[in-house]
Amino acid sequence: MARLTAGVGSSHVPLLGVAVDQGKSGDDYFGPIFAGYEWTRAWEKAEKPDVIVLVYNDHASAFDMKIVPTFAIGCGEHYKPADEGWGPRKVPDVEGHADLAWHIAQSLILDDFDMTIINEMDVDHGLTVPLSMMFGTPDKWPCKVVPLAVNVVTYPVPSGNRCWALGEAIARAVASFPEDLNVQIWGTGGMSHQLQGPRAGLLNREWDNKFLDLLESDSDDVRWIPHIEYLRETGSEGIEMVMWLIMRGALGDSVETLHRFYHVPASNTAVGHLVLQPTS
Asked: How many structural domains does the chain have?
């Protein structure tokens, strides 16, 4: 059977992708940020995951206001980096795991989640930046990826409780897949940031770290945080953190923290990073 062995949370700040692509990840500004991922890069090399279920949000690359799926799962064989206005990132194409993705899609739909199934799409920085942060600059990504896109751009967005429950359903789906696979689930996006309006540049270290504390705990209280609290405390784009709840919900009642990192700022965004392992 497939095994869900770990969960990873990470910001997906687009500027970090620029730093990688321009060879600036070791300079004075970016160096401290990338140093916070060194432990994970070494750990991933040792863990050798076969597949990552990568939870992210699209930034008007694959979807726009013509169609806004709440939850969409990529069931294709491969995905190219998206052109976000300045050409696609020069990173490897993302190789999918269609068999596992279709299995998860079927399991989720039979578990009463109305998933949108995507067989062809390009993937933007929301997905490729976390891969760069965790794997560096390989000629080929070292594992396959099942993209799971969440709408956190246009209201209404899914509740934290619904995201947590989706994570639980993904765990059931992975556990029922007959092939022996080492599967990780990543929740990306956030942390506190706002890109426009009078509060542009908002960062909230205290709230961000309380959120990380809750993810590390054996409590599920974090699933009940209302949207208005995310908006008030972490800015309009801080709502991306509900995607971390899909990762945490998939790990079960109890987790062990393997690595935690927090840094401000990267551009005008707080960077959070967490590696968790299920213990129950």
From this structure: 1
